[in-house]
């Protein structure tokens, strides 16, 4: 790896990625590390001690154990050229979240980027995604709103005053957004993701005067560890599954986040919902397999 801002555009920057044991959070943390950032990798899963609450989706996916941990992600961040630091946190517990930000502030004296990704929606997944709202369990509200949207809000409330004091910063909320189209068959998921998108918009209105940006970033259908497990596939053979043809790796999202974090004009995007595919065209990056994967588009039926 060569020295220089083109090779390591986030060198000297400090980021926090919540819910980064696996999936989207892990993809974001790895790409921020590859861009040279110090990355605080947070979540509940430690090496050898996976977080609880995933029993239903593990059963649906045929998994005996939940793979991934903040320790493994942090180590990979460092291997890729950044500085990965694993800090455990239950992002639904206000006192733990505040203590986390206090610890990072004491250690670094700054926080340039917060990636809100901690998400409880998997905890109530029962193998059914497409059903009328009256057929879905009400438990989805608690997992997706109370342990999903609320997680984003708690971390943002802690990050905002610190970023305001330093006069800059970027808050990114991972979401799903397809130009306000309705995700038919899963009202709870649609509500939660729309609320996260609106949260990013609302925060931007109050943070803009202080030079702090807030955006929502929407990947397409990601080949997370859980998606691959549900399709009995892995990164070596997923191309043999026609139903996975429209998928993208979590690092595609990570590259979008790294590009936004390195953009000195990111304030021009504050308050917007951004699709990874559109950012790939704008910033010129590709997925890990060299493709610029098209945006995932919902049917309008």
What features would you highlight for this structure?
301 residues; alpha/beta; Rossmann fold; 7-stranded parallel sheet; 9 helices
What does this structure look like?
Helices cover 40% and strands 12% of the residues. The longest helix has 28 residues, at 139-166. The protein has a seven-stranded parallel sheet with strand order 3-2-1-4-5-6-7, sandwiched between helices. It is built from nine helices and seven strands, in the order E-H-E-H-H-E-H-E-H-E-H-E-H-H-E-H. Helix 1 runs parallel beside helix 3, helix 4 (94-108) packs parallel to helix 5 (139-166) and helix 5 (139-166) runs parallel beside helix 6. It has helices at 23-34, 55-61, 70-79, 94-108, 139-166, 187-207, 225-230, 250-262, 276-283; strands at 14-18, 38-43, 83-88, 113-116, 169-174, 212-218, 273-275. With 301 residues, the chain is an alpha/beta fold. It has a single domain (14-283), classed as NAD(P)-binding Rossmann-like Domain (Rossmann fold, 3-Layer(aba) Sandwich), CATH 3.40.50.
């Amino acid at each position: 790896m060569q020295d220089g801002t083109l090779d390591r555009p986030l060198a000297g920057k400090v980021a926090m990625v919540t819910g980064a044991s696996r999936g989207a959070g892990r993809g974001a943390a790895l790409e921020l590390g590859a861009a040279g950032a110090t990355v605080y990798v947070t979540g509940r899963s430690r090496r050898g001690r996976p977080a609880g609450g995933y029993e239903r989706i593990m059963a649906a996916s045929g998994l005996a154990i939940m793979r991934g941990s903040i320790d493994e992600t942090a180590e990979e961040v460092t291997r890729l050229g950044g500085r990965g630091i694993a800090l455990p946190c239950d992002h639904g517990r206000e006192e733990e979240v505040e203590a986390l930000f206090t610890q990072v502030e004491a250690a670094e004296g700054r926080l340039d980027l917060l990636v809100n990704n901690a998400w409880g929606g998997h905890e109530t997944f029962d193998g059914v995604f497409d059903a009328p709202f009256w057929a879905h369990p009400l438990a989805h509200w608690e997992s997706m709103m109370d342990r999903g949207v609320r997680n984003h809000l708690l971390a943002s409330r802690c990050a905002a005053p610190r970023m305001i004091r330093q006069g800059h910063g970027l808050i990114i909320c991972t979401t799903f957004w397809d130009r306000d189209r309705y995700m038919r068959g899963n009202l709870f998921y649609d509500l939660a993701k729309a609320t996260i998108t609106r949260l990013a918009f609302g925060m931007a209105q109050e943070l803009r005067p202080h030079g702090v940006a807030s955006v929502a970033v929407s990947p397409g259908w990601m080949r997370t560890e859980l998606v691959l497990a549900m399709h009995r596939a892995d990164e070596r053979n997923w191309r043999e599954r026609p139903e996975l043809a429209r998928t993208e790796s979590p690092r595609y999202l990570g590259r979008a986040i790294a590009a936004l974090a390195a953009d000195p004009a990111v304030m021009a995007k504050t308050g917007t919902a951004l699709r990874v595919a559109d950012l790939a065209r704008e910033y010129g990056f590709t997925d890990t397999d060299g493709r610029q994967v098209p945006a995932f588009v919902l049917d309008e039926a």
